[in-house]
Specification:
Blueprint (H helix, E strand, L loop, with lengths): L1 H22 L2 E8 L5 E4 L12 E8 L2 E10 L3 E9 L5 E10 L3 E6 L14 E4 L5 E2 L5 H5 L20 H10 L2
Antiparallel strand pairs: 1-2, 1-3, 3-4, 4-5, 5-6, 6-7, 7-8, 8-9
């Protein structure tokens, strides 16, 4: 009898967590980097021009809290992405990086920094771009994965690109319905 109640309680708990997760709406605003290095906030996804080296950050909100940020750098044949996860207090909890050589392979690495702010040796896992099956290290991998070690470290949401505009970003997020 106790086992059934425990099982029933577990099932209800799992269902309620899925129901609450489904009701949570995540919205985004974008922060684009100009050629001179300045960042500006906008409510729509920027146009991507790999030849011009488009760089932008997508700030995802769960309510008024920045939940994650994807910093994307485009190049003519590949893209570098740094994904930052933050807790409710705006502190960094995870940092992942990836390099995708379009149509060929994808390399992913955990880039969470040490206490001194440095990222140690980068251990990259490689995948076939089309199937996501693990592959051995491609011959040209070092040329591209070296960019992962130049990850910008943002330990708090205030230090992010457009971090000074987070109140404005929250307003933009609130108006997206």
């Amino acid at each position: 009898m106790l086992l059934r109640r425990g099982t029933l309680f577990f099932v209800l708990l799992m269902f309620s967590s899925f129901a609450f997760a489904a009701n949570r709406k995540t919205k985004a605003v974008y922060c684009t980097q100009a050629a001179n290095g300045t960042w500006s906030l906008q409510g729509f996804e920027p146009l991507i021009n790999p030849k011009a080296g488009t760089v932008f950050a997508e700030l995802s909100f769960a309510g008024p809290v920045v939940e994650s940020v994807r910093l994307r750098r485009f190049h003519p044949d590949y893209e570098v992405v740094f994904e930052y996860k933050f807790d409710g207090a705006g502190r960094l909890t995870a940092l992942l990086g990836s390099v995708e050589i379009w149509g060929q392979w994808l390399g992913e690495a955990n880039l969470y920094p040490a206490a001194d702010g440095s990222v140690g040796s980068v251990n990259v896992t490689y995948y076939r771009a089309s199937t996501r099956h693990v592959i051995s290290r491609p011959e040209d991998a070092e040329e591209f994965t070296a960019e992962l070690s130049s990850v910008p470290i943002y330990r708090t949401t205030e230090s992010l690109p457009c971090g000074g505009s987070l109140h404005e970003a929250e307003k933009m997020n609130a108006t997206q319905e």
